[in-house]
Write a structure and sequence with these properties.
Elements: H1 5-11, E1 20-22, E2 34-35, E3 42-45, E4 48-55, E5 60-67, E6 95-99, E7 108-112, E8 119-127, H2 130-138, E9 156-165, E10 168-169, E11 174-180, E12 190-191, E13 196-199, E14 208-215, E15 218-219, E16 222-223, E17 228-238, E18 251-253, E19 260-265, E20 271-275, E21 280-284, E22 290-295, E23 302-308, E24 311-317
Antiparallel strand pairs: 1-17, 2-5, 3-4, 4-5, 4-7, 5-6, 6-17, 7-14, 8-13, 8-17, 9-10, 9-11, 9-14, 11-12, 15-16, 18-19, 19-22, 20-21, 20-23, 23-24
Amino acid sequence: MRILNVLCLLLGINACAFAQNGDFESFDLNLNEVLIDAPNGFWNEEPISLPNGYDEDFDFYFNWFISSMTDTTTPGFENQYSAITGSGNEGSQNYAIDYNFASDFSPTQIIIDNAFNDIFVHGMYLTNSTYAYLSMLNGDNFAKKFGGESGDDPDYFYLSFKGVKDGNITSDSLIFYLANFQFEDNSQDYIIDEWTYFDLSSLGQVDEYQVQYFSSDTGAFGINTPTYFCMDDVQWSFIDDVQDLSKNELNIFPNPSSGKLNFESNSEDNLLLSNMDGKIMRTWTEINIGQNSINLSEIPAGLYILRQKDLSFKLIRK
């Protein structure tokens, strides 16, 4: 819940009132175990479904697994189910790990269950697998050492997230670098080795995320870098649970809004727009008593809190 702490301090509310956490701890694993064969082909951690596939020709599983593996030192494919952190986020036991080996290069899917309630995903924690991390750090029989021998090679390994809503793929994408050696100053080069929060709120409310891997190290058969990443603590809300955060309301319309927003104010106090991390996205200082209009066209799609003095209201920018 810590991504909402700043917002909660500002508003004097309990984050648990409107944010929930998919942490994979509901899966029954002992330490250093992995679940590789999902019932009915999906791992379900409300409100997320993670596909799990099986290749009959080569007898191996791919896509999502649920892991509690802790090995951060053994290189190679035999240690493919461990996170480089040695645990889940904040020292928890379980986490999810993806291995993308689709012959048609189809993206990894993270499916959001919107069948019975509207779900809004704020973000999630991501890190490298041990296999991918050590491969990029040292190189192996299949993949290069990132930076090369000189350290100057502008290598990269990143994930591209796109949203799917009502069958339509968003034109925008969000990038998460698992490794980035593209800096002029080599001391800034990095390979992710800790759980790192990735904010997805600007993609708005979606039914599915499609995740694709990109690497500077490619060959005749595609990416040489091991195509794995780990995920934990998916932060989400029922949109209907993100209710008014005070006893009063701002009379705003339309909501959701695609641009222009109208509201009626009983005060000339400043109007603040915060994202779900508590970051102030926009401040309006010229507020009139009575009808007002503001422009949200430059604000990314997402779920926000609109505040004026002690009044607060949820706002969906579509």
